[in-house]
Structure formats: C-alpha cells, structure tokens
Amino acid sequence: MSMVIWGMALVALCVLLTYLPIGRLHGGRVFLKDLLNPSVRSGLRISSARKSLAVCMELPLKERLPKLLMLERRFGRDFIAGDEVRSAVVATGLDDAVPHIGRIMTQSAKGPGDVVSGIVAAVQAGALEELYRIHVFRLLLDGLNGKNRFGVWSERIPELLIHLDKDWAARVLTEICEREPDHYLFTAILSTLQAYDLPVHPAVANAILSESLDHEFSRDDLMKRILMAKALHETDPTRAEAILGQIVETQPSVALEAAEALLELMDLPHPRYLLDDLRDSRGFITLSEAEKIVWHADQCGYLLEMDYLDRFDSEEEGNHLGEMHRALVQVGAAKAAAKLGSYMDLYGPNGPPANVADRRNIASSKGEAWGKAVNALDELHDSWEDVTSLAIQYELRHSGQFHKASEIRKLLNRPDKPSALNR
C-alpha cells in the first residue's frame, strides 16, 4: 500500500514540476516542461538580457559602461542579446569604450553592425567624448577608403562622418565625389552631401549627365544621374528637371525615385508622407480634388503591394473603395484598377457598402468561400503598375492644384529638413 502511495506521490510531483510556471515569454506563461524546447530557452535568455540591459541604460554613462561589459560577459554569446549589449557599449560615446570597439568589430559577422548602430545612437544622444570621436571618425574613414569593410552597414558611413566632424568630412566626401565616380559608396556620399546642403561642383554633375540615356545603365548609375540632376538644379533648374522627367519616362526601374526627386525640387508634397500628414491632421476637407486623387491612389497601391486586399472588408480603408478605384483610373493604373474592381464585384451588383460593419457581415455570411474568392484574385491579377510612381507623375502634371510642401510643413510645425540620421 505504501508503494502505491509513494508512486502516486511521485506522479503528482512529476506533474507539478512539469507544469510549474517559471516565467513569461511573448505574453504567454512558460512552464518547466517548455525548457526542453531550445527556442524557448533562447527566448528566455534574450528576455532576461533585455531586462538587465534596460536597467543598465537608466544608469549615468560612467556607471553604465562597466555594467554593460559585465552583461556582455554574461550574454555576449547569445543570439540577438549579445549584439544589443555590444551596440550599447559603443553607444556610450565614452573614451573608455574605445578599447572595446575594435574587438566588437571583429567578434562576429554582426560586429560592424553593432559598431555602426552604436555610433548612430551615440551621435543622436550628442554626448561624445573627444578620444571616442577621433577614434570612430578614423575607423569610419578607413571604412570609407575600403580598409575596414562594414558590409551592408557601409551606407551609413558618410552621414556619420558629417555628424562627427562636418568640415573635415565635407572636404573628404567632396573630393571623393569629384575624383572617384566609381567609388563603392558614391551614391551614399552624394546623397549625404545633398542632405546637408553641401555643394557639388557643376562640372562633376555635367560629366555624369553628359552621356545619353540611350545607353544601357545599371540601377546604381541611374541613381547617380538622379542625384546629380538634383545637384545641378541649383545652377540649371530647367535642365535638371528635364533630365529627371526623361528618366521618369524612359527608365521604369528608377521612375519612382526620379519622380520623388522632382517632387522635392518643385516643393510638392509626397502623397504617403506630407500629404497624408495634412489629411490626418486637418481632414479631407483640406485637400484639393487632385490631392484626393493622388492620396487615394497611393493608399490603394500600398495596400495592394502589401497584399492587404482582405483588409478592405474589415478596416476603414474599405470605406473609400469607390474613390480609390476612380483614382487608380485617373492616374493611369489600369491593371491595379482592374484588380480592385474585381474585388468590389465580389460584393454583388450594389458594390461594397461604405461602412465596415456591413462589409464584414457580407464577408462573414459567405464563410470560407469569401476567403477563397479573394485569394483567387491574386492569380487572376498577378501583376500591376507601380501605383505610387503613377500617382506622383499625376501630381507633377497637376502641380498647380497641390499645396506646397513648405506650406504644409509650416502649417504642421514641421522642420524644413529632418536630420538624415532620423529619416
């Protein structure tokens, strides 16, 4: 009898230990048995590291660094957590962090990313000690010259150099721009110079823009032409706008980028950003008819691109399906309009109701058949135009019916040009 009791007690103990709660992960409770799952163990380590990191980040900088180094010793080999701690070490901006930066650079494949993200955070915080500033400037300068490879994080180098020492960086970047058109970061350098209103010699722009667009160009070469046309705009706006217009018409791979450049030069609002901000802040009544067309077309294009067609039956975006369809037709997005029209036909001869509850009821009443019908549209209409590009081209053709971008910024109390690091 005692053996039976002991056996039952043992089973009860095993059940208790198996379902013993030991913590929470992603909002759910974690039990002892879940530790058999390596992804759960990893998740718990990351969660623990982040909690400790959050505590460290509340400390003054001088106290923070030694605590971060202790955290690195504890979590440095853990996936994600180690990178976040190492980035925080670099982000202190302290002279005492300098000896650790070289080690972090080479410690893992993500090392250069940890260093760059840390420098960005330090620059944004604005508390850089002098030895740290000099060291990271030299490190990034070596990256610019190809001595240290930062991989996909290299694109951030030019703007970071500007923030660390604007005068010196401007001389270096301008010289590269003028003498090394094949530099591996040429496009990023040119973008940075323009973002910070640093001039490019017109001769440089003319040298790149002199070649006819009849030649075959890589995407990177076309982006150089777009940026150079923007640089030329200050001295020859007519030619610059003509070049960008030609790129829009003949180079579909970069038509959107060229159209966006024209928007900026002509002080016109981007539909997804400034124009949307104006609508969000002041309502549709603030927008002209042309602005409403562009806004509706761009919104619909974004939802189609993100494969969010099913959101129309359950979200407020679907309240404007009729306007969106007409807008797509007016900007010339015939294929996108056909796909949206096919979706609207699913609601029957009266079309989609203009409120969420009614559309949701129709979709629910058809059960699984509704989801299958919506999914079938992806096969029937598997490609469509770049709607945002067409919407912006429509805006350029009707520019007189749009608010000026500078007027909207003033109305919404926005800065004329946000910091490049924050864009």
Task: Walk me through this protein's architecture.
There is one protein chain. 64% of the residues lie in helices and 2% in strands. The chain is mainly alpha-helical and 423 residues long. It has three domains: 44-155, no CATH class; 165-265, no CATH class; 274-417, no CATH class. β1 and β2 form a beta hairpin. The longest helix is centred in the first third of the chain and has 20 residues, at 38-57. The model has no long low-confidence stretch (mean pLDDT 86).
Strand content: under 5%
Gyration radius, rounded:
28 Å
Return the structural class.
mainly alpha
Q: What is the straight-line distance between the termini?
A: 74 Å
Instruction: Categorize the overall geometry.
Output: flat
Largest sheet: 2 strands, antiparallel
Strand segment count: 2
Spatial sequence of strands, sheet with the most strands: 1-2
Number of helices: 22
Element pattern in H and E: HEEHHHHHHHHHHHHHHHHHHHHH
